[in-house]
Amino acid sequence: MSSPVVRSRNVLKRNSMRFAAALLAALASFVGAPNAALAAGPQHHDQVPGFYRLKVGDLEVTALYDGTGVFDPHWLNGTKATMDGVVKALHEDPHMLDVVDMGFLVNTGKHLILVDAGAGTWWGGGALGRLAGNLHSAGYASEEVDIVLVTHLHSDHAGGLTTQDGKRVFPNADVYVAKAESEFWLSHEMAAKAPKDAQPFFQSAQAIAAPYIKAGKWHTFSGSEQIVDGMQLVPLPGHTPGHTGYEFSSKGQKILFWGDIIHAQRVQLQHPEVTAIFDIDQTAAAATRHQLLSKLAGEDVLIAAPHSSLFPALGRLRKDGSGYSWVPVVFTDRWDENQ
Ligand SMILES: [Zn+2]
Predict the structure, then answer these.
(1) CA 137 – ligand 1 centroid, Å
(2) Whole-angstrom Cα distance, residue 325 to residue 338?
(3) Per-residue 3-state assignment (H helix, E strand, C coil) for 187-240
(4) CA 26 to ligand 1 center in whole angstroms
(5) Ligand 1 centroid, distance to 32 Cα (angstroms)
(6) Residue 152 Cα to ligand 1 middle (Å)
(7) Helix (H) and strand (E) counts for the chain?
(8) Residue 13, CB half-sphere, CA atoms under 13 Å: how many?
(9) Ligand 1 mean position to 309 CA, how many Å?
(10) Distance in Å from the first CA to the final CA of the chain
(11) What separation in Å is there between the alpha carbon of 54 and the centre of ligand 1?
């Protein structure tokens, strides 16, 4: 005896066959006749706005797209065997190192907090810098942002704070960054000692910070200060001296904004020992990543990863063989379904 499911499938099949026959007959009657109705319409090249919202307890979290780029394999440091494997895999899959750049907005009901600000005009030759536009598309004005938390001062995370002519993009925001981070990048002495290719990182960090310092809106933290209720500072040293994650909790749910723990998701999750040339302390960066990935794989913490290879760069981590795999947040258009 067939189950109700199979029966209803058969009915569907019968109906669709009848429909197909009717359609064929209708099409046949048009053959030879000029028919504008069947011509393809113009292609539509507009894309959906680059934001995605989800709920973490009582928090509204909005991922804000800043742009897409490609991570150069020469920016990765690993053993010869691992890097040979990466080059071979790239040959077969040229999009393996495609990455997004993202910032994230947290509306706590009391504060509108931006975590990382994208690149603005300071990185990527125009490929990045769309965060402010997407913030607007998400229904917010940059004047409404009252706090910005910066994971570190590389310009793909802090550049969106300031225009090239030195204006604050978030005029009402207090910006927070780790003291070690601020002192390192804003030091003229450090900048003078740095190798030539590192100089632009210092110059941009100083130019980006300047108008906020002048306005008294640049703040540093050095320990576990409480900046916002329900948010904890998570020191993640290595990539930069004061690289910091921000973990928000609400109603038993957690989200960690982890900054640059991963640059090349499809390499470093399987090989957490692989570092990036931008990691100032390579050993510490690898150790921090090992420790954090193993901790997160055992917890139900949502992760906001600015350089994920998948928009909206939100997901969870699971142990997978000797490495980890990324479990992405799957799109839904229902606010109450998405957690
Ligand atoms: Zn980055």
Answers:
(1) 23
(2) 21
(3) CHHHHHHCCHHHHHHHHHHHHHHHHHHHCCCEEEECCCCCCCCCEEEEECCCCC
(4) 57
(5) 59
(6) 8
(7) 9, 15
(8) 6
(9) 13
(10) 41
(11) 23
Residue 6 CA to ligand 1 centre (angstroms)? 52
Per-residue model confidence as pLDDT tens digits over 191-238: 999 999 899 999 999 999 999 999 999 999 998 889 999 999 999 999
Fill in the amino acid letter for 285: A
pLDDT of 173 > 60? The answer is yes
How many C-beta atoms lie closer than 10 Å to residue 228's C-beta? 16
DSSP-derived secondary structure for 250-277: ETTEEEEE-TTS-SSHHHHTT-TT-EET
If phi > 0 it is left, if psi is from -120 to 50 it is alpha, else beta; for residue 124 that is left
DSSP string, 291-323: HHHHHHHTS--EEE-TT-SSTT-EEEEEEETTE
In the reported structure, the alpha carbon of residue 307 is separated from the centroid of ligand 1 by a whole-number distance in angstroms of: 7
Q: Give the distance (Å) from ligand 1 centre to CA of residue 239.
A: 9
What predicted TM-score, i.e. pTM, was given to this entire model?
0.87
Q: How far is the CA of 259 from the centre of ligand 1 (A)?
A: 7
Q: How far apart are the C-alpha atoms of 284 and 262, rounded to whole Å?
A: 14
Q: Which residue has the higher pLDDT, 204 or 30?
A: 204
Amino acid at 88: K
pLDDT over 80 (residue 168):
yes
CA of 15 to the centre of ligand 1 (A): 54
Distance between Cα 214 and ligand 1 center (Å): 26
Nearest to 71 by CA among 290, 324, 262, 325: 262
Quick check: bond before 312 cis, omega within 30? yes
Q: State the distance from the centre of ligand 1 to the C-alpha of 249, rounded, in angstroms.
A: 24
